[in-house]
Write a structure and sequence with these properties.
single chain, alpha+beta, Aminoglycoside 3'-phosphotransferase, Chain: A, domain 2, 5-stranded antiparallel sheet, 10 helices
Amino acid sequence: MAERARHIDDFLAAAGWAGAARAPLAGDASGRIYQRLRHGEKSAVLMDSPAEDVSAFRHIARHLGGLGFSAPEIIAEHGGHRLLLLEDLGDLRFDRYLQADSVTLYEAAVDMLVALAAEPLPSESAVMNEAYLGDEIRLFAEWWPPGGEGAPLAAHADGWAEAWRAAYAPALAIPTGLALRDFHAGNLMWLPARRGNRRVGLLDFQDALAAPVSYDLVSLLQDARLDVPDELQAALIERFVTAMPGLDGEAFRTSYAVLGAHRSLRIAGIFSRLARRDGKRGYLQFLPRVWRHIETNLGHPALAPVAAWLARHVPADQRGGA
């Protein structure tokens, strides 16, 4: 710890931020640590990533900034020590500000996604394909349920992955764009002094990849941490589809349902893993909402094999709880 602290002090001194006051900022489920720095009239955010490379974040931040979106500017960096000094995008995080005007914020986020879908992908983008999704979805079978010993579903992981195979083809059959992956209210900042799409500040995008344009929209509207009213969700889906000429609405909604179920089941697996492996049980409070999203999406005919597998292996009374 002492050596890490010296690395940070040296990094900040080299960047001209020696002696800056530091205050912790809320982190996330990763091992990254964030601090707000104040130096006179200036402020910035320190990203301290002890165990994770920062090159992907840096690459996507510069790509998004070059396209005119509000990713934080990188003020200074030390890739070897996994440290970044970032532009401070303020305190108006969407999930803390939604009560003021949720429609305006969500519409701005949807419009930003429409604009991003029309932009070129960054170089060397990973691609969401059937193999990628098949590997991801195994996480649920490997770690569910969150309580108890062992992983009783792990023995059925092959059958679980097979249940998804037919659904992935239509999910992937719509246009592709850059998906930021964790595009939800907790990772978005409201920047009302900026104009147009720049009003939406972006925080968490190091896992971005080429994916169907439905992925980030379902990430936004089927949020694990807060509710988006059904009427608003429907209106925003319509807003997105209408703004993209040539996008087949029925095909889009199929992709939305499949990837929404996939994403929520993966999240359930992640929350279960955090509880069982890492002792982080706070995320289990979100499971009832996550399972509501899953149940909604399972009503789509494309997910009938997935619904049947869950009916056999995860009965209704074993869903949604800690």
